[in-house]
Amino acid sequence: MEPKKLDALISRYEDVYLFATRMIGSIVAELVQEMTMEQYFAVRFLSKHGPCPASRLAEACGVNRSAVTAMVDRLVTKGYVTRIRDEVDRRVVYLETTEAGQTVYHATQEKIRQFVEFYLQQLEEEEAEAFIRIYEKIGNIISVNNGGEQS
């Protein structure tokens, strides 16, 4: 692809991505004022994937263990996440959302669903399917190239 065309596409992508990210950030802030997007991402990941070690959450968030530990400490203090020790090996600690964390996740997820639904309904079904398919493909390419996992 010609560099000027690629630059224009990247700029258009950034515009849409940043708009959607700001809107979703506003939804999270509206529902849970003391939660950052990174903290919401962690609660979302734990809600969807169940209890997991901090190392798996760090990998999913794309941060190191010390960064995820600090974030989890704040989420534990706020009552959204709990630490559970493995009964067989007490050195192993799993992270899990609390009932309050689940409540925040589901309420926020519903608002985000409503936001995205409004815009997807402006598209033909085939356009919406193509959009999501391409977005997932890009997400998979990013994940493979960064050795991470998608949430």
Helix and strand layout, with pairings?
Layout: H1 3-31, H2 37-49, E1 52-53, H3 54-61, H4 65-78, E2 81-85, E3 93-97, H5 99-120, H6 125-146
Antiparallel strand pairs: 1-3, 2-3
Helix pairs in contact: 1-5, 3-4
For the record, the CATH class is: Mainly Alpha
Which stretches of 5+ consecutive residues score pLDDT under 50? Answer: none
Label the structural class.
mainly alpha
Question: What is the number of beta strands?
Answer: 3
Largest sheet: 3 strands, antiparallel
Radius of gyration: 18 Å
What percent of the residues sit in helical stretches (DSSP H or I)?
over 70%
Broad shape: globular
What is the overall number of helices? 6
Number of domains: 1
Q: Which whole number gives the mean pLDDT? A: 89
| Beta-strand residue fraction | 5-15%
CATH superfamily heading: Winged helix-like DNA-binding domain superfamily/Winged helix DNA-binding domain
Query: What's the CATH topology name?
Result: Arc Repressor Mutant, subunit A
In what order do the strands lie side by side in the largest sheet? 1-3-2
CATH architecture type: Orthogonal Bundle
Protein name: MarR family winged helix-turn-helix transcriptional regulator
Organism: Paenibacillus mesotrionivorans
Structure description:
The protein is mainly α and 151 residues long. The protein has a single domain (3-120), classed as Orthogonal Bundle (Arc Repressor Mutant, subunit A). Helices cover 72% and strands 8% of the residues. It is built from six helices and three strands, in the order H-H-E-H-H-E-E-H-H. The longest helix is centred in the N-terminal third of the chain and has 29 residues, at 3-31.
